[in-house]
Amino acid sequence: MSADLVVMGAGPSGLAAAWRAARRGLSVTVLERADHVGGLSASFEVSGIRVDHGSHRLHPATPPHLLADLRGLLGDDLQRRPRNGRLRIADRYVGFPLKPAELAKRLPPALLAGVARDAVTAPLRGAGRAGTYAGTLRASLGPALYEALYAPYALKLWGLPGEEIDGDQARKRVTADSPWKIARRILRGRSDGQGKIFYYPRRGFGQIVDALADAATAAGADIRLGTACTRIEPAAGAVVLHTSPGPGPGSGSGARAVSGDPVPNAGSTAGTRLTAGRVFSTIPMPALARLVEPGPGPEVAEAAGRLRFRAMVLVYAVHEGGRWTPFDAHYLPGPETPVTRISEPANYRVSADDPGDRTVLCFEIPCAVGDEIWAAGDFSGVVRDTLARSGLPPVNLAEVVVRRVPHVYPVYETGYAEHLAGLDAWAGTIPDVTTFGRLGLFAHDNTHHAMAMGYDAVDSLTETGWDGSAWRAARRRFAEHVVED
Q1: What would the 3-class secondary structure string for the chain be?
Q2: What per-residue confidence (pLDDT) applies to 446?
Q3: Which pTM was predicted?
């Protein structure tokens, strides 16, 4: 069996590419080892309520052409929503996104004085150890905000102190305003209005990937769920892929034991041999290195083994008695709990499908695969303890559902760039194979970034062959992305 294009992974980037390529008339096969599309972007039900794998939103900076395509697929179900979160800092809550007037009133005088002092001394600090996360943010934000907010957050989220994290983590993940700007906004009580809205589908964030899968299938793409690629053999003018049955329900890049909505006409085909004119890989780049034959040399293989992803346990607490709070998310950067964020999916949308007598809260707990958190069995105590320690309302706990996700955030520990550069350079030499996407590029990316990668990859696949210069230009654009929660 052959196809013009085989896409490995049915996340937002892979599905966007499959849809765009199928609309161009190419024969497209998508291989997904899980039993559902979407990966971390999928939604599923807990106690009759649609929930996501953590907190997901479609960013307002989504390019107009992508937003137009999604509106065409989702219609009025794609809702424009006000952002209404809270951040715990210095043992008190402030609105998130940050509201300067509220910060001036709510933050302790000592912290406000520190922000002002850091603004005055900023020219004296220079770049500092800007090569690290700690150095970059101390130099840009100042020591006061860094120690109060970003230092404990880094340790929880990535499992490393800021001094052991590369500065790219700050530049890619944090919108690092200068202390002058922060202090000026606080003193004037004014905000720039950024980050106040987002887009979100009525039936959960996974409605986006479900719609992309439906559209790709309608355009002729063959989406094969429960199908894992076991070997990739680049050959002259073609790539041979071998497949076998996937590891089972909920496996792959998404959470364990999760079933998404069925995809029309998407079957499960195993034990096949495919020949592709081109392969788009959105799976983790270290995993790609293990599949390609012949594989990389020993140095590149060792580098691949040094790249780590942070895992996460997602704990869904069913609360009886209506909505828990009016807020969509609570951010908890402090060390008093292992939880980094609590989101309430029903507050992200307006939907008559959401019951009025109960709600679901999602507790995000970063960890490493196999550690104490990952292996824990009962999280009801963590739920109650987190709420008590964080000054949040208790829950009338009816049920707890747990999902474990092995690949969530790439960890940019110091030295990662050298390891990634060697692996990426090797991946670029695989004939007729292109890697992209959040996992494929070991990158922090929003959904619209991932979709844009899929579109640009297809646009680089011209009638006369692969346009390497166009793809290199696209890769440079990807590298400039700043990711915001």
Answers
A1: CEEEEEEECCCHHHHHHHHHHHHCCCCEEEEECCCCCCHHHCEEEECCEEEECCCCCECCCCCHHHHHHHHHHHHHHEEEEECCEEEEECCEEEEECCCHHHHHHHCCHHHHHHHHHHHHHHHHHCCCCCCEHHHHHHHHCCHHHHHHHHHHHHHHHHCCCHHHEEHHHHHHHCCCCCHHHHHHHHHHCCCCCCCCEEEEECCCCHHHHHHHHHHHHHCCCEEEECEEEEEEEEECCEEEEEEEECCCCCCCCCCCCCCCCCCCCCECCCCCEEEEEEEEECCCHHHHHHHECCCCCHHHHHHHHHCEEEEEEEEEEEEECCCCCCCCEEECCCCCCCCCEEECHHHHCCCCCCCCCEEEEEEEEEECCCCHHHHCCCCHHHHHHHHHHCCCCCCCEEEEEEEEEEEEEEECECCHHHHHHHHHHHHCCCCCEEECHHHHCCCCCCHHHHHHHHHHHHHCEECCEECHHHHHHHHHHHHCCCCCC
A2: 87
A3: 0.90
